Amino acid sequence: MSALGGGTEPGTGRREECQDHHVADLIGEDQIWVSGDWAGRFGLTADPDDTGYGHTPRQVAAVRPESAQALVDYHLAVAARTRTFLTALTPADLDRVVDEAWDPPVTLGVRLVSVVEDDLQHVGQAAYVRGLLTPG
To answer: Are 31 and 20 in contact (CB under 8 A)?
Structure first.
């Protein structure tokens, strides 16, 4: 499950924020994004419900990391917590229902697959953009 612990979307870190949001919900803790000055380091306010989904171009343009290191630091913090969570899981944990708002209810295993799938989509998007910007 290495996709749960790596990479960033160019300029935003939104991949980590979605992972941060879901893992925080699974462990019943605050998101790393809102538990420190992470949002401030990206020029944003800490809003636990704002994962960037559905943002307008203006909202995306408002994301201004203080440095590339801010992206790396946030990535490392989210990856470390995710890794700690994953290493404590047992196979039986994967069948635990974590969201009854869906039909059928969502198990922990399905939620983790969803997080990985979201991460992989963002990695693909970043690779595509990089390809557009790389000459020849």
So the answer is: yes
- Which phi and psi (to 5°) does residue 110 adopt? -65, -40
Which residue(s) pair with 98 in the sheet? Answer: none
Q: Are 4 and 115 in contact (CB under 8 A)?
A: yes
- Position 78 scores a pLDDT of 92
Q: Using CA atoms, how far apart are residues 103 and 116, in angstroms rounded to an integer?
A: 21
Cβ atoms of residues 45 and 78 within 8 Å: no
Which residue, among 123, 127, 9, has the nearest Cα to 65 in the 3D structure? 9
pLDDT at 2: 35
Residue 128: predicted pLDDT: 92
pLDDT for 1-47, tens place per residue? Answer: 333 433 333 334 455 778 998 999 999 999 999 888 898 999 888 88
Indicate the SS3 state at residue 130: helix
Contact predicate 94/112, CB 8 Å:
yes
| φ/ψ bin of 55: left (φ > 0), alpha (ψ from -120 to 50), beta (otherwise) | beta
- HSE on the CB side for 10, CA within 13 Å? 10
